[in-house]
Design a protein that fits this description.
It is a single chain. By secondary structure, this protein is an alpha+beta fold. Helices cover 38% and strands 23% of the residues. The protein is built from 6 helices and 8 strands. The protein has a 5-stranded mixed β-sheet with strand order 1-2-3-4-5, with helices on both faces. Strands 6-7-8 form a 3-stranded antiparallel β-sheet, with no helix packed on it. A hairpin with a 3-residue loop joins β4 and β5.
Amino acid sequence: MVYNFSERKELNEKVEKELFRMKKVYQETEMSDMQVARLRQKMEEAKKINKRENNKKWMVRTAAMAAVMMGIFVILPNTSASVAHAMEQIPVIGQLVGVVTFRNYSYETDRNMADIDVPEIQIGDQTEDQAVQDTLNRTAEEINEEIKKISDELIAEFEAGLAYEEGYQDVLVKGEVLTTTQDYFTLKLMCYQGAGSGYAWNYFYTIDLNTGKRLELKDLFAEDADYITAISDNIKEQMQAQMDADESVVYWLNYDIEEWNFKSITDETSFYLNEKGNIVIGFNEGDVAPMYMGTVEFEIPAEVLEGLWK
């Protein structure tokens, strides 16, 4: 839809008023039941997609791969029945990395709902470089501890909230394997917490399988490359293009209230590499857009970063 100047100005004024209202209640904004249902559906779809991909891989595994899987079976912690169930859902990446459901936590009444699947990264003993193998083991252990800490804190907050008999609360945690190449592995942890207000956020855990280290954005580029500006400018272009194409899409961009506006990513901004090798930047709910936009991602075209890679 194309607007003339006066129509666009009127629309901007309406949007700014609405954004001002949403900004005031930024932390109090509550996810609707429909939005929560959609979030749960997305998480369940991610699990189904992973399972379908695993079934395809199962058909082409070699005898050597079966031996790797046997090794993973041996080292699994005997934590609960959910671990055994998760064995059917292990994605194998480059004969090095697998993911299992370490713990399930569920609770549901008419006022309280918890649906938490805690993923855990498992490392197979397949690399000839012992230094890389050791680094992989340490990296996986660190990530697993971080995920367990996040999940434990959410469970503790949920259980504490059960004391408020008149309250409502929801908590969701699911894992999704995003990247499964010979060079990189990415696990996405999707979280939602609602207790009067609702908030969704993601964590991205990317491992460089060539070094065994957790990948940082700066690791991908030449020492003096200005990748921050290149990525940030492209994200702004994508934001504007989406808003021009759909009036219901709103980002914190080019508004009079300067402190709202998205200006730049940092080296700490969440990201991962997709199957094409392109960088995908992820933002949590409310970071760069109104809460109703949910979590948003921007794939950066390869040509935008041409000449900047390491």
